[in-house]
Amino acid sequence: MALYEHVFLARQDVTAQQVEAMTETYKAVVEANGGAVAKVEYWGVKSLAYRIKKNRKAHYALFNLDAPAAAITEMERQMAINEDILRFMTVKVEELEEGPSAMLQRRDRDDRGERGERGDRGPRRRDREDGEAGFDGAEEEV
Description:
Layout: E1 2-11, H1 16-32, E2 36-52, E3 55-67, H2 69-81, E4 85-93, H3 102-108
Helix pairs in contact: 1-2
């Protein structure tokens, strides 16, 4: 069987519990057709780059699948019928990712602190002494 990553977007109007129910439904479809779901991740509600069917936000979910092509085709057919699914995409991969995906890792790396490793910017314009050069290199008039 082939390995796939599948992401789908559900309307922002549905609840997280309804999205979870949808993932269980599609997981059952894959398993009924001889496939296996290695991982399911719910990424939450995120803003869309552009409006899709009058929606500005959507629930994102990821499947890692080990399934035959017929199982993927049936799952995508049922997603196309569902009005709550805005978009979906399935990509064939060489191997499945272990651990959390890049979208979930991004939340963890925001622990750098107030300024991170960049340091302080130095004195602000109003904090400088009279006669110190401005941002454009010219002398400020007092």
